[in-house]
Amino acid sequence: MAMNDVGRPTRLVAGTGAVAETFTGNKALMLEEPLLFERGSLDTSGVDLPPVPPVPDRLGGLARDAVIGLPGLSEPEAVRHYTRLSRQNYAIDLGIFPLGSCTMKHNPRLNEKMARLPGFADIHPLQPQSTVQGALELIDTLADWLMKLTGMPAVAMSPKAGAHGELCGMLAIRAALDARNDPRRVVLVPESAHGTNPATAAFCGFTVENIPANARGRVDLDALLARLGPDVAAVMITNPNTCGLFEPDLKTIADAVHAAGGYVYCDGANFNAIVGKVRPGDLGVDAMHINLHKTFSTPHGGGGPGSGPVVLSAALAPFAPIPFVRKTAKGTLELVEEDSAATHAGDSFGRMVAFHGQMGMFVRALSYMMSHGADGLRQVSEDAVLNANYVLASLKDLYTAPFAASGPCMHEALFSDDFLDGTGLTTLDLAKAMIDEGFHPMTMYFPLVVHGAMLVEPTETESKASLDQLIGAMRHIATNMLADPDAWRSAPHLAPRRRLDETLAARKPVLGWKEKAA
């Protein structure tokens, strides 16, 4: 009988295909919790309230004429219900989150403490600017860090997400073309770029054309150069790309695009792999968004809008959106809300948001930067790359690693399900089996250039012990899948809910609850 590293047996229940013990000793989420309506009774209340005295009807005929239909639960019942549901959510505070391309790293608690300081947490966007000089200074300081780290002369701070940042950059490119009466409207997007890139370009009115990847997982330079012409407005390229690989020809590409009259948009979602090591501005990039949650450890979304600042080249800086922070002649800071020749270059494409970005994310990001310093940020990217290559080296003898022969990866390791050929099993089956081990699955079926893709990003915040447990579980699953394929077609076996028909759930979701007839 196989044993894991703490002496627990890892075996299947004979004849059932069910897992009795897992490699990690975890048994998924264990707690079974019914719906709120199934726990409570519709004809009782968990709270005793005095009778409501008669009052005049002020609802204009809109008073409820039927029971409200909410289940009555006591306070401990309600607390237990939602606490148990919370245990069915996987989170970075529970364990490693190996989603490739998403960079689910630890959010330092110091950053959270700084964001909750009253001078930042309690301000209002409509306050007089004289009363929020500290906040404006923080935004200006963060902007300065971003420009220095990227080697770019300008930055737009207001976009509230990565895709929103893409939109900002492409609108700036569109405005620059319009300013010179240039009708070109074709955007070239490599296969290895992020999936939002073509959607953003199309949303801005551009026609998108695909550029293939070469056998090494990078953009096909010859194909891209051959397609350049007077109708090409821009190239959108992700570097490092979605295969987890650095694009070494980006400077050559940028020079060629500029010579042809176009612009270079770089998807900076993977900047966390090169921060402190490479400045995109030195590679000829005209616009690049930065996901603060990926590179600078702010929460994903932050309970609301996230933040995706966009750095801009000198050619695009005049077209940046408003508002923006500027220092006055008196040394104070102001938020410029109107675009004119007197306040800006007069060429801004306009406003993207009502106010100026997401203050909570700005505070967290600057706190992260100042905690690490320049040398610390460089080490962050080095450690992220080291961890990803450790995962790649530890699994490539068992999992198919399509680009391992091309050399080291960057911050994420890419595998395919080719090693499962002949078993009838797929990436989805393997991902479901990871749930039984207590892990959130890796990113599946992305990027599209690899069949059955499995993209693993360990980030720099995971220890070797954490990585070893993930690697051990992935090897255990793959080895047993190859030895006994039939036992894994119905995973997960230990989760509160078993294998679902996800296609049916997406096409015919049940959005309401009705009590079953007795």
TrEMBL record:
Keywords, A to Z, come to: Oxidoreductase, Pyridoxal phosphate
Molecular functions per Gene Ontology: glycine binding; glycine dehydrogenase (decarboxylating) activity; pyridoxal phosphate binding
Signal peptide range: none
EC number(s) recorded for this UniProt protein: 1.4.4.2
In this chain the Aminotransferase class V domain maps to: 181-301
- Where does it sit, as one GO cellular component term? glycine cleavage complex
| Protein name per UniProt | glycine dehydrogenase (aminomethyl-transferring)
Q: Give the originating organism.
A: Sandarakinorhabdus cyanobacteriorum
Q: What is the lineage of its organism?
A: Bacteria, Pseudomonadati, Pseudomonadota, Alphaproteobacteria, Sphingomonadales
